[in-house]
Amino acid sequence: MTHSERLKNRIAVVTGGAKGIGRAIAKRLAKEGAEVVIADILIDEAKKAASEIGARAYAEDVNIADQDSVDRLAEAINNRHGHFDILVNNAGILDANGFDDMTMERYLEVIAVNQHGAIRVTKTLLPLIRKGDQAKRIVNIASIMGVRGSRDSIPYSTAKGGVVNFTRALACDLASEGITVNAIGPGFIDTDMATLPDGSGHEHDTEWFKEIYIKHGRIPLRRAGKPDDIAGPAFFLCSDDSQYVTGQILLVDGGVSATF
Ligand SMILES: NC(=O)c1ccc[n+]([C@@H]2O[C@H](COP(=O)([O-])OP(=O)(O)OC[C@H]3O[C@@H](n4cnc5c(N)ncnc54)[C@H](O)[C@@H]3O)[C@@H](O)[C@H]2O)c1
Asked: Is residue 139 lining ligand 1, measured as CB closer than 6 Å?
């Protein structure tokens, strides 16, 4: 597929860009001409992803749950560029325990990364976005679990629900400055996050998943998603084509949320 240079002269920061969905988004934004900072806690994986993407990507070490670490990221971006244009809050972790097994410690850990992490990164980096002179975009990667209920998902769903309404409220706060804020709610996407808790393989390869979601069409498009399925919609929300779109939650789930 050929790409235009619709993000030429833009600088994008993608948290959690070392793997999975973030990596696919980073690759797509770079293909569209942006210079991409892959900001991840797995710095070796992030460097590998950057070198595979090419000259338009480089890696920065960050733990989004740690303010000092995010401050260092802001300093590094400021020293190198002085500003940037596009922030993709993608880094996240999964938790798949039932409520009875959930400890408050684990609950707070998941909230610290998935919800507070996105808010912390946005708050810390916003002054650098404000200094930009291109179309300014913030895209949060939430989840269908942020807008729907699902068993064994209290910390994760609660955090993603927080990201969903953070998106809407921040869009209202920043609209007058022309900064758009939107979220994507991916459905079942084939990444390391979809590995079963016992490590025995991917959720999408199990018989129950194939039976319910594929054979019986609980996913109307009858397949799990791929990271590239999220990269296109993310690019749209980062591009000039989405200039009149803000505060929206775009569910990219093969139609799961359209069924009952
Ligand atoms: N895979 C799915 O089915 C799915 C569905 C809905 C939403 N999502 C969301 O999409 C996003 C990406 O998930 P993925 O499936 O690509 O998962 P993944 O595990 O493949 O990638 C997550 C990335 O985030 C990074 N990360 C984790 N904690 C971090 C931290 N504290 N600081 C910095 N980086 C950190 C990891 O190192 C990794 O590179 C997440 O926010 C996830 O919740 C995924």
From this structure: no
Q: Is the CB of 65 under 6 A from ligand 1?
A: yes
pTM above threshold 0.90: yes
pLDDT tens-digit map of 53-101: 999 999 999 999 999 999 999 999 999 999 999 999 999 999 989 999 9
Cα angle for residues 43, 235, 222 (degrees, 5° grid): 95
Q: What is the pLDDT of residues 244-257, one digit of tens each?
A: 999 999 999 999 99
Scan for tokens 């410690």, then name that residue. 105
Q: Which atom of ligand 1 is nearest to the CA of 89?
A: 41
Active site residue 156: yes
Closest by CA position to 196, among listed 187, 206, 185: 206
CA-to-CA distance for 16 and 189, rounded, in angstroms? 15
CA dist., res. 174 & res. 19, Å (int): 29
Q: Which residue's alpha carbon is at the smallest distance from atom 2 of ligand 1?
A: 189
Which residue segments constitute the domains of the chain, with CATH numbers given? 11-189+226-251 (3.40.50.720), 192-224 (no CATH)
